[in-house]
Amino acid sequence: MENPTTSNNDRRPLAAGLPQLAPIQKQGMPLKDSSILVLGLDASTSAVARLFLLSGFAVALLQPEAPRTLCRKMDFSDSWHEGSASLDGVEARRATSNAVFLSGLRSRAFIPLLTNPLAEVVERWPWDALVDGRLPEERRYEKIKGRADLTIALGGPAVAGEDYDLVIDVDGPDPGAVIRSGPARAPSSGSDVAKFARVVASKAGVFEAIANIGDLIDEGAVLGMIGDAIVSAPAPGRLRGLRRAGSFVVGSDLVAEIRRDPKAAFSGCERNVLAISRAVLFAVEMELAGIKPISLDDIF
Fold first, then answer.
1. How far apart are CA 157 and CA 174, in angstroms?
2. Which of 97, 69, 90, 91 has the alpha carbon at shortest distance from 79?
3. One domain for residues 172 and 87
4. Can you spell out the DSSP letters for 187-241?
5. For residue 83, is it within any domain?
6. Does the global pTM surpass 0.85?
7. Rounded Cα gap, residues 24 and 98, in angstroms
8. CATH code for position 276
9. What distance in Å separates the CA atoms of residue 57 and residue 33, rounded to the nearest whole number?
10. Which domain covers residue 253, as residue numbers?
11. Which residue from 87, 91, 100, 74 is spatially nearest to 17, judged by alpha carbons?
12. Could you give the angle at which helices 271-288 and 43-54 cross, rounded to 10 degrees?
């Protein structure tokens, strides 16, 4: 099991450096042996995976390509580049071998991060639930419903009952609300503008950071450089996200995010993502246990 083969013609070896997941039956797993796969590495998906681990589930993260989100101290995105990252006492570790993947699932000592293609991962491990929190453009052309016993989308664009079994509201007025039929709610218009100032690249080139995440920023402060072009802050506040140093950007790419409230947290899980993660955990526990949610239609 630790060194699977890929002798079958329909199971080609994966790219060098990636764990080759053979079809494995869940043997030797602890009592709470449901396996959860979480797609994405942003704040919400990181909080979801963290809570599943702390609740005793076998959980893995999946991010086949380099994250397109900003570097933050509020998620596991650094694990893709640096091999590991911690979030409020829980570690995510890039699974560079099948042994590392299995060790994380069985021991619950860390969350293994897989970088294999999605099709390979769902074919070669019997996932009980799949939680999709990827960016809209990353999930637009992939059918998810049916790839696990239970499929859940975090926000839109997604339709509960068609694209996924359930949708968890992340952008509407009630973060964490479970939608069992119909589309995800649209984001509240203008709500982010008052809270955040976002900085986009003015040209293509390699971004080099000067400021650090967590810094208190004055309006006009230099955040970094793209070639000879200065990237400056459009408003004062707390620097919460920053493009990875040395990364290539094109014009209009997001390079920094400033929370206008200087007292805002810049590390750990925020209240809204904790609410979302608790809703996902509750929905998975209910569905996998076969418990039907109470409906007023059943009472009156």
1. 17
2. 91
3. yes
4. PPTTHHHHHEEEEE-SSSEEEEE-S-TT-EE-TT-EEEEETTEEEE-SS-EEEEE
5. yes
6. no
7. 11
8. 3.40.50
9. 6
10. 191-259
11. 100
12. 50
Which amino acid, one-letter code, is at 134?
Answer: R
pLDDT, averaged across the chain: 84
Q: Is residue 13 part of a domain?
A: no
Output the six-digit token pair for 175: 């973060």
Return the DSSP state at 261: S
Nearest to 150 by CA among 282, 296, 278: 282
The total number of structural domains in the chain stands at: 2
Q: 145-165: per-residue pLDDT in tens?
A: 889 999 999 987 888 899 999
- Long-range contacts formed by 74-78: CB under 8 A, 24+ apart: 74/43, 74/46, 74/240, 74/265, 74/266, 74/267, 74/268, 74/269, 74/270, 74/273, 75/41, 75/42, 75/43, 75/45, 75/46, 75/47, 76/41, 76/46, 76/49, 76/111, 76/113, 77/41, 77/42, 77/46
The predicted-structure confidence for 185-206, as pLDDT tens digits, reads as follows 776 655 566 788 999 999 999 9
The CA-atom distances, in angstroms, between 171 and each of 168, 189, 214, 272 are 9, 10, 24, 10
* Alpha helices by DSSP H, the chain: 43-54, 78-82, 98-107, 118-124, 136-139, 191-195, 271-288, 296-299
Same domain, 195 and 115: no
